[in-house]
Design goal:
The chain has 110 residues and is mainly β. It is 0% helix and 52% strand. The strands form 2 sheets. Strands 2, 4, 5, 6, 9, 10 and 11 form a 7-stranded mixed beta sheet that branches. Strands 1-3-8-7 form a 4-stranded antiparallel beta sheet, with no helix packed on it. The radius of gyration is 13 Å and the shape is globular.
Length: 110
């Protein structure tokens, strides 16, 4: 199982970013997937998840601003992030169960 995130970067408050995750080594369409985030020194938080039936869940702190989606044909998971806030600064990981990628840094700062 391999997961590789990309698309992070530096963005101003109020801005947008789209994270992508490329998956391999398992049947992508049969699995639920998640986005997590972690700030150094703090616990890792679940940001959003999507089931194989495309049911979605969002943490309260991103609800209405972030959208999780998947493209089963490309084995890709996405996280569209709008109206970003400084407190969204973290390393973002895609995950399948306990397996996660190496993460991509998102920094929200003016």
């Amino acid at each position: 199982v391999q997961l590789a995130e990309y698309g992070g970067g530096l963005v101003r408050p109020g801005g947008s970013l789209t994270l992508s995750c490329v998956a391999s080594g398992f049947t992508f369409s049969n699995n639920g997937l998640s986005w997590l985030r972690q700030v150094p020194g703090k616990e890792r938080d679940l940001v959003a998840s999507i089931s194989r039936e495309n049911n979605t869940y969002y943490a309260d702190f991103v609800k209405g601003r972030f959208t999780i989606s998947r493209d089963n044909a490309k084995s890709k998971l996405y996280l569209q992030m709008n109206d970003l806030k400084p407190e969204d600064t973290a390393v973002y990981y895609c995950a399948r169960g306990l397996t996660r990628g190496q993460g991509t840094q998102v920094t929200v700062s003016s």
